Amino acid sequence: MPSVGPLEIVIIMVIALIVLGPKKLPEMGRSVGRGMREFKNAVSMDSSDDDSDSDSDSRRSKSKDREQVGSGS
């Protein structure tokens, strides 16, 4: 997939300035930034939930193994 170079970024910014206007452009930037921040937070919370789930599952299996070993002796 081709990468976007500096010239393409400048062209996109000029088109955005023409379409949105100088008053709306900062508002759009803020809303895009907020959306990206919320997405990152949701992804990090989801991955931390997965980590805690796997930790608790491994703890449960270890305790079951200990109980089985203790009762088998």
> Which structural class do you get from the secondary structure elements?
mainly alpha
Which percent band covers the strand fraction? under 5%
Helix content: over 70%
Oligomer: single chain
First-residue to last-residue Cα separation:
62 Å
Counting DSSP H or I runs of 4 or more residues, the number of helices is 1
Over the alpha carbons, how many angstroms does the gyration radius reach? Answer: 25 Å
**What are the segments in which pLDDT stays under 50 over at least 5 consecutive residues?**
none
Give, in order, the helices and strands: H
**Rough outline:** elongated
Q: For the report, how would you describe the main beta sheet?
A: none
| Number of E-type strands | 0
Mean pLDDT: 80
Question: Can you describe what's shown?
Answer:
- This protein has one helix at 6-72.
- It is an all-alpha fold and 73 residues long.
- The protein starts with 5 loop residues before the first helix and ends with a helix.
Keywords:
elongated, 92% helix, 73 residues, mainly alpha, 1 helix
Lay out the secondary structure.
Elements (H helix, E strand, L loop, with lengths): L5 H67 L1
